[in-house]
Amino acid sequence: MEHYLDNSATTAVSKAAADKAYAVMTRLYGNPSSLHSKGIEAENELKNARKSVALRLRVSDEEITFTSGGTEANNLALFGAAYARLRERKKIIISAVEHSSVTEAAKRLEAEGFQVERIAPRKDGFIHPEDVAAAADKNTSLVSVMLVNNETGAIMPVSEIFAAVKAKDEKILCHTDAVQAFGKLEIKAKALGADLISVSGHKVHAPKGVGALYIKKGVRLVSRQYGGEQEKRIRPGTENLPAIAAFGVACDMFDIENNYKTVSALNNYAKKKLLQIEGVTLNSPEAALPYVLNISAGRVRSETMLHFLEEREVFVSSGSACAKGKPSHVLSAMGLSREKADSALRISFCKHNTLEDIDALCEGVAIGLKVLAHR
Hints:
Blueprint: E1 3-4, H1 15-26, H2 37-57, E2 64-67, H3 70-84, E3 91-95, H4 100-111, E4 115-119, H5 129-135, E5 140-144, H6 158-168, E6 173-177, H7 189-192, E7 196-200, E8 211-215, H8 241-252, H9 256-274, E9 280-282, E10 292-297, H10 302-311, E11 314-315, H11 329-333, H12 338-342, E12 344-348, H13 355-372
Parallel strand pairs: 1-11, 3-4, 3-5, 5-6, 6-7
Antiparallel strand pairs: 2-8, 7-8, 9-10, 10-12
Helix pairs in contact: 1-8, 2-8, 3-4, 5-6, 9-13, 10-13
């Protein structure tokens, strides 16, 4: 029996979302830009999906731009904001624990002459508002701090961070990568104080290949692509309507409060059982999002344990899926020892997980520590 506990990497597509994608591909296949009835039919699907995503961020429909996923949304936010203010401001501030789609974009901007300042978390695993505000100045164009860390589940105090930054200079744009938070926490753009918010479909039971960027009305970005009139020319090109429509359906199915309770119970059960295993320690902060649990498993390297668990049909991750097994910059920035970072596993839940999944995980880790430690 399969025990899938890698939902921060991707989720199974829901039947309702898959059915919608299939219907759009086979029946509602018109181009949303076409003026005939098939095009209008498709355009209505696009409008409905945009409304569904906007509703979950408490923003207007016109403030949502569809992308190919969270990576493109993050890239569009960073490059778009940086280039739009190139002549007046050339400093970007990010946290040191961002997703690679932010850290690599920042690295590229740095190579182009922008100043990039990286704010490390304190020992508690969180980015503190005063640390970000201290780095902000009149040359700062953009601040980017993720809402939920994809490796540890740490919920960053984004609203406090952005308030502190805006108090110092209200012209600084504030972006948050909310990919791991979307569908799991109630998100209100205005309450966060965010000018830009990135979200993704395949983390919330929609297909891969679709995401969105919230762009607050009045914020100007320089497009990364050129072509047609789609998405207000910010992201031109024929829309991936099957995936977008499925994303909209997935958003309509959010049950944040009940799912949070379910996953919190699973997380607590997992922590209790895992900590009974000699050699296991927790890396996630106590107040982390319950959907993500990061542990270190003795002296056994992450990849070795991961494949041992896979043989038992238990699927977890050694960190961010986008890192493809490279050492975690997140755990390093948190000050974890190399030994702990090298044995780290990320367990990530969804509403479909069960106590049996966790029992299988704990049994596998316990046996693995006994068997693998002696190889």
